[in-house]
Amino acid sequence: MSDIEAIYGSMVFNDAVMKEYLPGDTYTDLAETIKEGKPLDLDLANAVAHAMKEWAIARGATHYTHWFQPLSGITSEKHDSFMEPVGDGTAITKFRGKELIQGEPDASSFPNGGLRATFEARGYTAWDPTSYAFIKDEVLCIPTAFCSYTGEALDKKTPLLRSMKALSNQANRVLEHFGEGGHRIITTVGGEQEYFLISEEDYAKRQDLMLCGRTLFGAPPCKGQELEEHYFGAIRPTVNDFMKELDDELWKLGVAAKTKHNEVAPCQHELAPVFCEANRAIDENLLTMEKMKLLASHHGLACLQNEKPFEGINGSGKHNNWSMSYGKVNLLEPGESPADNLRFLVFLTCIIAAVDDYQELLRMSVASAGNDHRLGANEAPPAIVSIFLGDELGDIVDALIDDHPYQSAAKVSMDLGVDVLPNFLVDNTDRNRTSALAFTGNKFEFRMPGSQVNLSDCNMILNTAVAHALKAFADAMEGKETDAEFEAAALAYIKKSLTDHERIIFNGNGYGDEWRREAERRGLANNRNTAEALPCFIEQKSLDLFAEFGVLDEQEVRSRYEVKLEKYTKTLNIEANVMERMVRRNYIPAINAYATKIAKGITTVREAMPAADLTYQEEQLEIILDGLKSANEAFVELKRMHAEAEAIGEDMQAEADAYAEKVVPAMEALRAQIDALEPIVDHGYWPFPTYNDILFYA
């Protein structure tokens, strides 16, 4: 059994370690620098670097790296040893302040959307002291931002930090009216990570899983999730062993892994951490994803983090639980009487306005080829952004809009009818799994992100949009000197804003066709795929938002738009290539071989027994040959659509549109033909493990 208290944070250069390893004055100066966001002077950096090195070496580290998040969305690292030769055949260990605060990776070799040419290679990483350094695989990892030689952000972290600063500034302006200004307001995030675990042996036999992260073919299993027995069910011993090792490794890294359970689909699981400051939470989620993949092989498993690895059963998301706080004060805590909590109503109103005004940007932030298969598939929110408030907050909003008295929905006690069982209080707000953004007591749960996504993008946009709405409120309250003036103006502002943005609030079933029609009537956007979702990123409204708060300049926005377009088309290009290869080299030869076997069997039986009734065999052969013909026609059509999309050239949006509108439907058509033949062809002839094989291992 793990000694949680002993191992937790043991590989993290956290606040407790800083107090132990740094002189008192140095620790105080560093804490002040972090709090105020000031650059480190070199003397302070040297002292911190020396302490960090001594601590890391004492725990077995031999190298250090600047650990950063390029626009690929994953993490990158280059390892340098602490060793430094002294010229007499011996060596010492050194780690200087300048090596701590700045590194120099190649800025042209990462996705950059045209910000860097191949001959413009210089880039810089800069230490982010607000996220703790940690040791991973004998390497001291220093979380850093990544920028180009000319200063443009080339990573996910930098805009996130800028957006957090913008939100803090504007939230403080609002809080000043409540006598609470002057705080560092942080956004907190808890990222629930869903994933699949399958047999590593089956994984190695599926080219599509290995190269694309998802199955491009596969008929429905005989049994899927319809019995609803996997969710919260007993965890397989093999999976439980994996989860135990994962917990231990994450706890050492200070990741507060809290909850683990089976998810809805066979082989699907979830890990949920305790929430923390958004910047660190996202670093920790990326670490969690990395550890999941690496540790799975220790148990003969492969970890799948694609949003939709298997057709016909639930895909995987990453619910982003978001709130705002300072100290121990949660600004989204409604209190005992939300209707009388003016501060809460102000922040709630601003969030509603922000989501309505920038709904398309939020949708864009989670757009990917994988997530296109998941959103709206009766397992995740639809591609339409809406807010769920629940009964009590919904009634409060209605009362504010319509100017009628609000009757508090007091919590009621539920009696379960069994004496030994305790009565318990029923929450006034239910949980809505079909909503894109649901209020869940004292936070908003953004349910649209897919399991592979880096959460920096959606949090950066949510922070910036809310900062914009808070600024509008603070501007409107300028000059309201007395409490009475402010309260009257604030309530009037809340009423108008909620009236203007009421369309984004929806407490019903987001899966139904009725909601799609209703959303269209309300004027809400429904960008069904990534190609449709991305253009809003470079609209003037978006450019103005990012520029107003210094989160991204126009060049940085356009570069990210191009990177997202390129990743989308490259992903689908790879999937189409793999699909074509599997059909030509594996599926068609295997199906043809089985058809040949049947044909030879018919001939053999007829020769031995001319009067035998071979109707069944002949019908089966006809079905298979017709299927082969249809599959080949679909294969040829996919090749044609794929070639046309690739030939478009420099117009990246047009190429993405072609993939979305032509290549993806052609892939689905080819898949349908192959999948229809799978239940007919002898299992011994089928070239790859089927869903029945993969999803129900021991």
Briefly summarize what is shown:
It is built from 23 helices and 21 strands. It is of the alpha+beta class.
In helices, the fraction of residues equals 40-55%
What is the count of β-strands?
A: 21
> How large is the radius of gyration?
28 Å
Cα(first) to Cα(last) distance is: 24 Å
Q: Could you list the spans in which at least 5 consecutive residues all have pLDDT below 50?
A: 412-418, 420-426
Class computed from helices, strands and strand pairing: alpha+beta
Share of residues in strands: 5-15%
Oligomer: single chain
How would you sum up this structure, described in words?
By secondary structure, this protein is an alpha+beta fold. Helix content is 48%, strand content 13%. The protein has 23 helices and 21 strands. Strands 10, 11, 12, 13, 14, 15, 16, 17, 20 and 21 form a ten-stranded mixed beta sheet that branches. α12 runs antiparallel to α15 and α14 crosses α16. The radius of gyration is 28 Å and the shape is globular. The relative contact order is 0.10.
What's the topology here?
Layout: H1 4-7, E1 12-13, H2 15-21, H3 24-36, H4 42-58, E2 63-67, E3 79-81, E4 83-85, E5 91-93, H5 97-101, E6 102-103, E7 123-127, E8 133-136, E9 139-148, H6 157-176, E10 186-199, H7 200-204, H8 207-212, H9 237-252, E11 257-262, E12 268-273, E13 276-277, H10 278-296, E14 301-304, E15 318-326, E16 329-330, H11 342-357, H12 359-365, H13 369-372, E17 387-388, H14 390-402, E18 413-414, E19 424-425, E20 437-439, E21 444-446, H15 456-476, H16 483-501, H17 513-522, H18 530-533, H19 540-548, H20 554-608, H21 615-646, H22 652-677, H23 691-695
